[in-house]
Amino acid sequence: MYSVKTHCRERVMTPQSISLLKDSEQIHGISQVYFAAYHRPTNSGHQDDISQYIRDFRKWIEPQTSRWISLIVPLICNAGPFDVIVRALGSSELTAQVNGPLDRLCEAIAQQSGATYSPELLVKTRTTRILQGLGGRAGHRKELSGAYEFQGSGIKADSRILVLDDIMSTGSTLEAVGYAIKKTLPNSEIVGFVLGKAGMASNAHLDPDYFIATEEGSMAERKATTTATDPSTRNKSRRRVSAQKNRKPQAPAKAPVPAAKSKPAVTMYVISIVLVFVLLGAIVPLRSGKNAPPPEPTMLETLLPPAPIEQVAPSTVAPTRELRLPAGRKNLHPAVVTIPNVGLRRNHSLESKTVPRAAIRNGERVEIINRFSNGGPGWLQVRTKVGKVGWVFASVVKEQKAKDM
Fold first, then answer.
1. Nearest to 15 by CA among 59, 74, 64
2. 100, 104, 76: which is closest to 89 by C-alpha?
3. Residue 350: CATH number of its domain
4. Could you tell me how far CA 16 lies from the centroid of its own chain?
5. Would you place residue 351 in the very low, low, confident or very high pLDDT band (cuts 50, 70, 90)?
6. Measured between alpha carbons, how far is 247 from 277 in angstroms, rounded to an integer?
7. Are 43 and 198 in contact (CB under 8 A)?
8. Do residues 27 and 194 make contact, with C-beta atoms less than 8 angstroms apart?
């Protein structure tokens, strides 16, 4: 039986133990391009974990996205200082929608470096096709020619501008963005950063285990996925099927004869339950008076017991008696979730375990009850409407004006 490790190796990789890689190819208009790892395309036939984790970042899969941000932000800040940060736009984007993982990375860099993330400065005059399959660098340049414009006439002429993208294959996107910036600010200095550069070189400088969650549930899910896709497991399944086909047919075992009255007994049981509900529906209004109107749905909801509150360490959250919002209390520090799905953690660390059954989803309102920042991406301690309390990255929620939950 195929198996995988149930515990990750000790994570010793830190921003202090690695450094960004520099692209040796000169891109017109860009003074220097940094990247974190080599990315092997899915059609290359040679895959590695780091390339997969880069694609997980693009799809906003956790914890890979948060770990990339924690690892990369200090390294990019060391290459600063920067005045303005912008990001490349997707093929269908005319302006940045500011709702993706690349935007969260830009915001984290701006928060730590003191630069300004201004996605509105970079726009496209038209949508473009997906560059993959357009004939390499020549086809990419033709597709992106004149597509970008930089509306930065209001910033200083010698600004140092950081341009971010997720994956670079030919460098044509950074080249098109650099050309648009130089057209408006010819004296500016432009630095590029991409998470992955297309190439088959080794990613030995990165530890794949750093990007994997330590929770037992995540590991069990990963084990199940790996087992399902392992060739040896599939071969064993085929052998079992072949053995069953070659086995001589046996006389089927006689099924036990059900009792003669089993079906009528089930019918009577169902009828009894229906009668009980009918009687309860008739009696309950009579107890409150003949003319009493039926209770509103909101009144019924108040009769339900309050949701249980997860007990956590006193050092990381407020006392238990303060976890639930009293009736009528206003949400003094409201916020709304801006990503598809994220779990609450017991402490302000990616090493901390998640709070059971406490995932929050896009558009859900929460209350901010504490904040933490220690030189890296900020953390917020939030409370959900059902009383769950935990920590999330500050970049995954958007603060709002105070109002009722």
1. 74
2. 100
3. 2.30.30.40
4. 25
5. confident
6. 53
7. no
8. no
Structure tokens at 275: 């009668």
Looking at residue 2, what DSSP letter applies? -
Q: φ, ψ for residue 35 (rounded to 5)?
A: -145, 160
- Distances in Å between the Cα of 244 and the Cα atoms of 230, 236, 240, 312 are 22, 12, 6, 52
Is residue 6 domain-resident?
Answer: no
Residues 32 and 155 in one domain: yes
Flag the least confident range among 209-223, 286-300, 328-342. Answer: 286-300
Residue 153 per-residue DSSP state = T
Residue 228: band (very low, low, confident or very high) from pLDDT cuts 50, 70, 90: very low
Indicate the residue type of 364: E
> Has residue 346 been placed in a domain?
yes
What is the distance between the alpha carbons of residues 211 and 55, in angstroms, rounded to a whole number?
Answer: 12
Q: Which residue has tokens 């509103």?
A: 296
pTM: 0.54
The span from the CA of 12 to the CA of 139, in Å, is: 42
> 330 and 205, same structural domain?
no
Report the DSSP pairing between strands 122-124 and 189-198.
unpaired
Alpha helices in 48-157 (DSSP H): 49-58, 64-78, 101-113, 136-144
- Look at residue 14 and tell me if it is in a domain: no
- Cβ(163)–Cβ(87) below 8 Å: yes
**Two tokens, residue 307:** 């949701």
Cβ-proximal residues to 234 (8 Å cutoff; 6+ apart), any chain = none
The CATH number of the domain holding residue 65 is 3.40.50.2020
Cα 338 from chain centroid (whole Å): 10
Q: Does 170 share its domain with 48? A: yes
The region, left, alpha or beta by phi > 0 then psi within -120 to 50, assigned to residue 182 is: alpha
Q: How far apart are CA 190 and CA 79, in angstroms?
A: 12
The total number of structural domains that make up the chain:
2
Residue-wise pLDDT for 19-48, tens only, equals 999 998 889 899 999 999 999 988 877 889
Instruction: Give the residue from 110, 86, 63 showing the smallest Cα distance to 174.
Output: 86
Burial class from Cβ neighbours inside 10 Å (0-12, 13-18, 19+) for residue 55 reads: middle
Domain that holds residue 357: 320-399
Same domain (yes/no): 40, 188? yes
